[in-house]
Design goal:
The chain is mainly α. The chain folds into two domains: about 5-10 and about 345-385, no CATH class; about 10-310, no CATH class. It has eleven helices and no strands. It has helices at about 5-70, 80-100, 105-120, 125-150, 155-185, 190-225, 230-250, 265-325, 330-335, 345-355, 360-385. The longest helix is centred in the N-terminal third of the chain and has 70 residues, at about 5-70. It starts with a helix and ends with a helix. Keywords: Membrane, Transmembrane, Transmembrane helix.
Length: about 400
């Protein structure tokens, strides 16, 4: 085989090896890129959800304070320092997370209306309606935060139950229990027909509260059984016990429920206060637990990204080693394949090995020349002997 053909074979083998190595690197790179994009998307989504959780905590406080203030308008009213403090707390959350969540316009509307309405009287029917408007705006902002932060789209088993509790069930319990108290207080001052209607509305509100409270208990049970960890489960269960006690007070068995004759029973009016008092720590515990789950998820995604990078690097290294092993050593060193391993030929033999092959006729001619040469040498030898 000619040197040109030998070099061509060596070049083809090396090109094939380089192509296989490039394909291996490309495959690992594609998989790593896809995994990197997925983990990055998951981390950004979880970070957005954490922003929503941070914003919802002060909003829960605003909602609870407004509900208490609205109920107080049916009596002598009470100081509004708690409402203003919760609004200031939400303003700080808006400054931190508002741009990311897109809440600027809704928050500005809520703050302007609250500043205007809180400046007026805090008792009477007009005050009740003003606080009712603020409660509606606050609940709408909570829903907006849940939507824009993608909390309502969270796919994880444990966190989806906490999101449902925070955005749906607990607000329903708080508003329903306040309605029970407000209906009872107003019905006590009304005529008999109005009292009968109040009993119906109270029964409806109790059903809503009982249903939502049951959902809270069931969802928290699912969270604790989903492997959320003791630091999450213990805090939730600690806050759940006072909540259940308050729910039992506001939704007693049917035989113990008040009739139109005793709608002003003190225990009925105090029950909603127990629910409101239990709402705050439980709502905070739910959001803290949700934030911990999201933080753990982000940390896990970071670990997955590092593991994927290490696995891809190891795979490329192994692939390169296998390809290096698969390519014949002779092709890498530029030596002939017919040389036995471990044996080096002398330079003259290596040169002879690279000479082109000759045909049969050329071989016969060379043999004849060889014989002629031998005859000439014999003749010369004879002449020398004769001369001596």
């Amino acid at each position: 085989m000619s040197p040109r053909h030998t070099k061509s074979r060596r070049g083809s083998a090396m090109l094939l090896a380089m192509g296989l190595l490039a394909a291996t690197i490309g495959s690992f790179g594609f998989v790593l890129s896809r995994l990197w994009d997925l983990t990055d998307q998951g981390a950004r989504s979880a970070a957005s959800e954490r922003a929503g959780v941070a914003y919802l905590r002060p909003l829960n406080h605003v909602l609870a304070e407004l509900v208490e203030a609205r109920s107080a308008t049916l009596g002598t009213g009470h100081a509004l320092d708690g409402v203003r403090g919760a609004l200031d707390e939400t303003a700080a959350a808006e400054a931190r997370w508002g741009a990311e969540l897109g809440t600027a316009e809704r928050w500005r509307h809520l703050r302007e209306r609250s500043d205007s309405l809180l400046a007026g009287p805090n008792t009477g029917r007009g005050a009740y309606q003003r606080f009712d408007e603020l409660i509606t705006l606050t609940a709408g902002l909570m829903d907006f935060v849940g939507d824009n932060s993608k909390l309502i789209l969270d796919p994880e088993l444990g966190s989806v139950y906490l999101v449902d509790i925070a955005l749906t069930e607990l607000p329903a319990v708080l508003l329903g229990s306040a309605q029970i108290t407000d209906e009872a207080v107003q019905a006590a001052r009304a005529k008999d027909d109005a009292q009968q209607l109040a009993v119906i509305r109270i029964s409806t509100a109790r059903h809503v509260v009982a249903t939502a409270a049951d959902a809270v208990g069931e969802n928290l049970g699912k969270v604790t059984n989903s492997g959320a960890g003791p630091e999450v489960s213990d805090a939730l269960l600690t806050a759940l016990d006072p909540f259940r006690t308050a729910i039992d007070a506001v939704t007693p068995p049917a035989a113990l429920r008040p009739t139109a004759a005793d709608l002003d029973a003190p225990e009925l009016r105090n029950a909603a206060g127990l629910v409101t008092a239990a709402f705050r720590p439980l709502a905070d515990a739910v959001l803290v637990a949700l934030d911990k789950l999201l933080a753990t998820r982000i940390e896990g995604l970071g670990d997955e990204r590092q593991s994927a990078g290490a696995a891809a690097a190891a795979g490329i290294a192994v692939g390169a080693a296998l390809l290096w092993w698969a390519v014949p050593a002779a092709s890498r060193r530029g030596v002939r394949h017919d040389v036995r391993p471990g044996r080096e030929l002398p330079d003259i033999a290596r040169v002879a090995g690279d000479l082109p092959q000759i045909g049969a006729q050329q071989l016969l001619a060379a043999e004849e020349l060889h014989h002629v040469g031998r005859a000439v040498r014999a003749y010369d030898q004879g002449r020398d002997d004769h001369a001596r």
